[in-house]
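Supplementary Text 2. Reproducibility record for the structural model of the 257-residue chain.

All settings were left at their defaults, and a single model was retained for analysis rather than an ensemble. We include the record here because the model underlies the residue-level annotations in Supplementary Table 4.
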Amino acid sequence: MLMEQRRAQLLELVRVRRFASLQELATELRVSESTVRRDVEMLEELGAARRIHGGVLYAGLSPALPHFEARQPIRREQKRAIAQRTAQLIRDGDSIVLDGGTTTFELARLLVGRPLHVVTNSLPTAELFAPHPNSDLVMIGGNICPRTGVALGPFAEQMIASLRVRTTILSVAAINEEGCFNNNLMLVETERAMMHAGGQVIVVADSSKFGQQSIAHLCALKDVHVLVTDDELSPEWQEKLRAQGIELILASVGQGN
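Retained model, structure tokens:
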């Protein structure tokens, strides 16, 4: 694991838990406690974490987002496998848009430290990239959803409309024969602007999202160029997606850790 990626994962563990012991972090990251100490010293210099007796406290400025944090562990193994496979599609120097889903957040954790131009409307994702000089970060403004820390609405859409990137990467709440759906009407308007900004649209979604329904229709299946999901997706759905001309990539869950 690259040093920048390891530090990003360490910070994320501390952010979610608010406090973690050095032993806990060393076990999770599969490194020595002395390596964790060095990483924490760097995060302290950035003002992102603080050492206290017995462990490390999160010291970031962004507020806790209980809804976002509660969704992170759901099907995490599948999300990580999808994120690993999607990260292979991104080239150094690329310009990308990342939305505020938990699967795209797993991807963001893998991309931290790479030389990329990153546009996002997600406070948690922006927080990952902000301390790292290799990444050129653009944070989209707008109305902030207090449940997810995502900026959306007309101000966000106006800002996105002025941008062009190589790839837009979105997560969705549901996929069925009508297309992709999310659970917020304002969010899908913002995500449509993101799709327009990208030369290529990648949707990342675990296999439990297929055949489901949500409130707001985002796009038709044919509007998606690449779809990355896990290898638990049914053969029927694989056939449907390929029939729409979508490049379907199946991430092996067993190799996603």
